[in-house]
Amino acid sequence: LRYMDPHNKSQFSSINFQKYWSPVDLYFGGMEHTTLHLLYSRFWNLVFKDRGLVAVSEPYKKRVPHGIILGPDGEKMSKSRGNVVNPDEIVKLYGADTLRLYQMFMGPFDQAVAWNSDNLIGPRRFLDKVWRISQNISKDNKTSTDSPLFDRAIKKVTEDIESMNFNTAISSMMILVNEIEKLNNISTANYKSFLKILAPFAPHMTEELWSMLGEKKSIHLNSWPKWNEKNLVDNVLKIV
To answer: Which of 23, 45, 89, 200 has its CA 20 to 30 A from that of 155?
Structure first.
């Protein structure tokens, strides 16, 4: 609440500022801190509301509990246990995008997952494929036959991000990349759309590839791609 009006010396927090900033749309918190999160956020907010100090009764619209990343030994990471993984070392070996991608690909967002450095190879190889595919882009967008592949991926990734299913969003992009690797070329427009849905997961590499395509405006400032529903209709169905 104070962050909404940090320099106010005469009020707890301006009601007008609070009306602008609150309630928070999405609030994350670890499973092990559920009681304290609810106590300090919801309970105290209700107390402040009774005192006329806050603008809304509920401090956030939705709270999403997240799992924790355990050490390689399956225990909670701790200096005393000596099982802490230093992210700086991972970045030096594999790059920041690989680390970021792996963390979201490890498992469901709301579950605890044990760290396994061997599994970094998969996300790294995936990003290498994405880079190689950039060499097979066709400038002829009118004769593109790869659109249905991309439309399905855009829809799947969009919906998975909304539902916090980041691991399955990445999985669907991996499947897409394996499919388009088989093609001789892909359209520039579709490749750009793919880079946009990959950008939240691998922001650095996608920005580099985006600029290599001649784009001046950052990929992270562009609009999110839309899918064509017509391309999602299957022409052939297998009926057992």
So the answer is: 23
